[in-house]
Amino acid sequence: YVPPQVRRAQETQDDKKREELGRLKKMVNGLINRLSEPNLSSISGQMEELYMANSRKDMNDTLTDTLMNACVTAVAMPARLMMEHVLLVSILHHNVGIEVGAHFLEAVVKKFDELCKSDAEGKECENLLALIAHLYNFHVVHCLLIFDILKKLVSIFTEKEIELILFLLKNVGFSLRKDDALALKELITEAQRKASTAEKKFQDQTRVRFMLETMLALRNNDMRKIPGYDPEPVERLRKLQRTLVHSSGSGKDTELRVSLESLLSADRVGRWWIVGSSWSGAPMISDTNSKTQQKLHVGKVSSKIMELARKQRMNTDIRRSIFCVLMTSEDFMDAFEKLLK
């Protein structure tokens, strides 16, 4: 039972909160609408002030919603506009805290996954992919996520996916080559294998051939072979980013090294990539995993050692396993190997 006076206080509080959020949304919207390269410095400064004045959660939600409404449209967004929006996120990510970039990235990736599964006719998928590509260009996210997305697209391999692969490689291909040439090489091999098996499937072979040519151009570091490739705008905005980021650690240490799977299952297993992110659900390791682990060690280790572990009050599976490893290892190298496993 909630007494009437408490109920009334709650209702007025809710109205107040709604009003505040509405006002915040208007302010953020106004700033995003005016966003352009020359005034990026003043707008990012005003955004930082808003972050200081309001709760992080409200700001993250409002900023993500506003940017998604602005960038994810049924028609293709101009590349320059897209870059400026993402650059704002990256500056806030470096200056305010990594949860800004992490919140936006998670929303974008989930939306992208959702739209890929549905047969949407518009250009929303390309726009979302462009957002992810530029988040990588401006050091918000590590190349691990980009490779995960490319692998997923290559595994499906329909005409829509080929378009998306081409689009992504054109935007970030040479950066991927710089960051992890081996993974790119493996991806190209897999795509070639897929293309040779799927030749009968496509009526129009030119797209597949063009994709393979683009990939080979990337492997050979030949920029001339990729039509319309121009790294200059990204480079110019990266220079601007360096001037606007306060901390000297604007580079690799704030990159989110998170995989596609982790982002899509964040609601189930928590967000390990955000420091201090509260999590009240099930533990990250699945139950089946821990059960098999337990059986495994019980099988290998004699009952005598298990009895010792019990006497030493090793009361969880993981403690028991570590104790058993230490007690049964031949030497320190053996113990080290087993503990890593």
From TrEMBL:
GO terms for cellular component: nucleolus. The keyword Phosphoprotein does not apply. Gene3D superfamilies: 1.25.40.180. One of its GO terms (molecular function) is RNA binding. One of its GO terms (biological process) is ribosomal small subunit biogenesis. It is found in: Nucleus, Nucleolus. Pfam families: MIF4G. Residues 25-222 form the MIF4G domain. Keywords: Nucleus. InterPro entries: ARM-type_fold, CWC22_splicing_factor, MIF4G-like_typ-3. It comes from the Eukaryota. PANTHER family: CELL CYCLE CONTROL PROTEIN CWF22-RELATED, NUCLEOLAR MIF4G DOMAIN-CONTAINING PROTEIN 1. Plays a role in targeting PPP1CA to the nucleolus. This is Nucleolar MIF4G domain-containing protein 1. It comes from Formicarius rufipectus.
